[in-house]
Amino acid sequence: MTQPQLIQQTLQTLADLGVREVCVAAGARNAPLVAALLNSRGVKIWNFFEERSAAFFALGRIMADRLPVAVVTTSGTAAAELLPATIEAHYQCLPLVLVTADRPKSYRGSGAPQAIEQTGLFGCYAATLGDWDGTNESYDTQMSNGPLHLNVCLEEPLETNVPGIDFSTAGKPQTPEAGPPCSLECDLVLASGMHPAEAAEAAAFLAQLGAPIIAEATSNLHGFRELQPLLIPGGERALQSARPTHVLRLGAVPSWRWWRDLESQPKIHVTNLTRTQFSGLARTENVETLAWDNIHSTQLAVIDPPCGILRFEPEFEKFPGSEPGWMRRLVEVIPAGSRVFLGNSLPIREFNLALQTAQPGVEFFANRGANGIDGLVSTFLGTGAVHHGECWLIIGDLSALYDLAAPWIIAQMAHPKLRIVIINNGGGKIFSRVASMRALPEKARGVIENRHAMNFEPWAQLWGMEYLQTEDPSDLADLLPVPIVIEINPDPLQTEAFWKDWQRPVIRPR
Question: What's the rounded Cα separation, in Å, for the pair 321 and 488?
Answer without folding.
Answer: 10
